[in-house]
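BUG: 3D viewer hangs when loading the predicted structure for this chain

Environment: internal workstation, default settings.
Expected: structure renders.
Actual: progress bar stalls at 90%.

Input used:
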Amino acid sequence: MTNSPVKQAPHLAPSTTTVTDHQLRSPKSSRGLRKLQSAHQLSANYAASNTPSLISQQRQQQQRNTSSTHSILAPQIPPPPTLPSHHRTRSNSDAVVPNAFSGAIAAKKVAASKKNPTNQNPREELEGLVRQGPQGDVPSELSRLRHLVLCEGLYADSDGMSQIRIYIWLILLNAPAISTDSYLELIRRGASPAYSKIRNDTFRTLATNPLFKRRVSEASLIRLLNAVAWKLHDAKLEKLAEPTMVNAANERGSPELQHASPIVKHAQGPPTTTATDGSEAGGTEPGIYVQGMNVLCAPFLYAARSEAEAFVAFHGFITKECPGYVRGAMDGVHRGLALVDKCLAIVDPKLSSYLQSKHMKAELYAFASVLTLCACTPPLPEVLQLWDFLFAYGPHLNILCICAQLVIMRETLLTSSSPTKLLRSFPPLQAKLIIEITVSNLRKIPAEIYEELVHHAE
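Structure tokens produced before the viewer hung:
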């Protein structure tokens, strides 16, 4: 060993002790000799020679090796060179590879910034539109609102409750504001001509839905439907009181147009309760109540924060968007059922042919879904989400939403020998999937059929 204490101490005299081969071969004698030599070296000569110990020498040697390595390598590290310009297409090795997770986030941010130039949170943007109103051109702001509803959706809890949903609906339906006193005046008028029919329906409105029963009382539903009935009743009387041009004969016997008063038009007397009751009115006469309006009204009461808000939204919806659904003969509903068969034959000919072979027309299984805009199919939070889409782009798209539900059930229906049992009640709504299928199938609908869809509920 080069670092042996014996070799590094030349002043030690050679040992005069004779060591036999047996002692050299003995591990015990060898260890003893080393102990004596180390003790002599460390005690007697350390102070005189000022020579560092073996451990200290090893540490110093390591430090010198480390420092010499750093002193040699440090000057060899050149400064970062300036990257030369490439005269070829850059390869992947020339580019800096970012972290995959951060790259995905950056891509999402870029996509979001393209959709939202202000880089504002979609939820905050929707709330800003409700609180502050449009900041620019109204048609473009409405288009932006519809896009946010379709792509981002409205924030809601597990029960489907959203603080801004009813206000978004009021904006999309273009429903005017109404004072609470105006609604209370309709309530104070008491029972409307359709009150008895309303009471026959309200107790079974979404009777098996605990969310609706917990939030909306039957009394609230009765008040709202009765107020709407009074509103429709008054509008019907005003329309009957308007003078119209009728054919009459002058003193010479030649026909001429004259204004006819309500007495001339209704010579048999004033309209009775039965005539104004929508469930018994004629096909072309506007009604004041038809069976199914209670279910159609339910989501408005559930989403609204007051009965007055629900009243304005519901009344505006049935008078502007689907008046044909609440006429006595429900002609708008029957046109919608015929369109379900037409559209299904376009988007899925095989399924349509199979249902037709089983004599399963839409009027047998889709009447409630057309009349109530799928509100008859649970769960209620999914209904609200589907209505967000329908109010944004038109309730007429409900016909294609019904076709989308049939497409979702396609495999089950085609393998069933009796699809009638399956179609007695539709499976639970899946709003996002239904909307995706509807938007996809919309491209397949011819222009003339789409025109029928737009106007079928008028």
